[in-house]
Amino acid sequence: MIRSRFLKLISGLFLLLLVNAADAQQKDARVVAQCFQVLTDVLIHDITSPLVASRDYAYSMIAFYEAARFADSNYASYGGQLNGLKAPPAPVAGLRYDWQTAGTAAFYKTSYAFVFSKEIFQKDWDALQTQLKKRVIPKDVYDRSVAFGEQVAAHILAWAKEDNYIHTRTLPRFTPSKEPGTWQQTAPDYMEAIEPYWNQIRPMVLAAPDEIPTALPAAFKSEKFIAGYKEVYAAKKNLTKDQNWAANFWDCNPFATRTVGHLMYSIKKVSPGGHWMGIANIITSKTKQALVPALATSSLVSVALFDAFIACWHVKYKTNYIRPVTAIQQLMDPLWEAVLQTPPFPEYPSGHSVISMASAVVLTNIYGDKFAYTDNSEKLYGVESRSYHSFYDAAGEAAMSRLYGGIHFREAIENGSALGKKVGELVVKRIILNQHPHIPATVSKKAAS
At how many degrees (to 10) do helices 139-160 and 50-68 cross? Predict the structure, then answer.
C-alpha cells in the first residue's frame, strides 16, 4: 500500500516535471518571436527596404541559432553549409551555459550592428530584457553565456562584412532608361529605383545570383504584352471584395505613402520578408516548438528569403521591365491608377511571388503540405487576419495579389513563383540542420488543426 502510494507520488512528480519542462521550452521558443518583433519595429520605423531587411533578418537569426543550437544535440551548424561561413565558435566543454541567454546576446549584438535607429532598438531591447531577466540564472552562467553569444555575433558580423553590401553603398544611382517598355519612376512620390546592385551581394546558398535560369518577359507591345496589361486593367474593373482584401493584406510595401492636402506621410507596413518571418513564428508557436527547432525554422526561412531576393533582383535589373501603371497610362488610359501603390523598382519578376514561394517550400519541407493556419502576423499594424489551407495556398494568393493590386503582370507572377520554388528547393537540398528530421518535423494532427 505504502509502496503503491510512493510510486504514484513519484509518477505525479515526474509528470509535473515534464509539464514544467515543456512549458519552459515553449517560453524559450516565444523569445524568438519577441526578438524578431524588436528588430521588425525598428526596421519599419527606418523605412528599411525589403532587401536590406532580409539581410538584417538573416544574419541576426543565424547568429541567434548558432549561439543557442547547443541546447539540442540533434542540430548542426550552418558553418560550412553557407557560402563563406566558417565554423562559428564552440562553447568550452564541461562549463555550464544558458543557451537562451547566449542566443539572445548573439541576436542583440548582430541586430544592433545593422539597424540605423539604434536608440529605438536599444529602448525596445531593454524592455524585453527586463522580462527575460526574470528567469533565475547564476551570475557566472549568465556572464559566460553572454560572452559566448557575443563571440558568435562577432563571427557572424565578420562573415557579413564580406558579402559586398558595403561596396554596393558606394555605387552610382540608377538612371531610368528612355527606351520604350522600360521601368519609369511612378506616382505619387516618384522614388528612385531601389537596390539596383543587389545582385552583387553574396548569396548564402546559391552558387551565383543567376544560377537558376529565368525566361525573359514578353516584348513591349507584343500580342502577349497587350493581353497582359489588358488583364490588369480588367482585374481592377472587376475586383471582388475578397481580391481587394488579399491585395491589401499582402501589400507589405514599406515605401507606401499617403497624401492629405499638402502633407505626405509614410504608412506603417512590414516588408514582404518580415511577413513570412512572422508566419514562421506563428507556425513554431502553434506547433509548440522548443527553442532550437523554432530557431531552425526561422533562420532557414530567412536564408531562403535572402537568396530569393538576390535571384529576383538580378532578373529585375537585367530586364528593367515596365510597370502596369506606366503601360496602361501610355497605351490605354492616361488617368488609370493601380489599387496599390507601385513599389520603386522594375516589374519583372514579381518579388512577392519569388520570396513567398521560396518561403513556402522551406516551411512545407518542415511541416508538411497540408498545414492549415491563420495569418495574424500584421495584426499589430491594423491588418485583418486571413486563413490558409497550406503554405503553398498562402504563397499562391500572395503572388496573385500583385495582379489584383495592379502592380504586376501575370507573367511576372507565374515565372516569379517558378523561380522562388527553385530557390526554396535548393535551400532545403543544400542545408541540413536537423540530423534526425523526425524529431521536430513530426507535427501532430491536433497541433496542425
Answer: 140
